[in-house]
Amino acid sequence: MAIEVSELEGLRDELIRARARGVRVTAYEGKRLEYGSDAEMAAAIADLDRRISRASRTPIRTVRAISSKGV
Description:
- The chain is mostly helical.
- The protein has two helices and two strands, in the order αββα.
- The protein has a two-stranded antiparallel ribbon.
């Protein structure tokens, strides 16, 4: 089951706020998650950004090939 883009954005925003406050422990849906370093938090934020980008893309529906003889 895929996570909705809005939920991914919410998780990312929450993580960015926690990082800005200097907090390394976050809790969501009754789960507690502790990051060992700022680098781990930055990597988690980057991963969420990639997932959001991938989920937001519009699929390519038509591909057209054009060629010429170069004349």
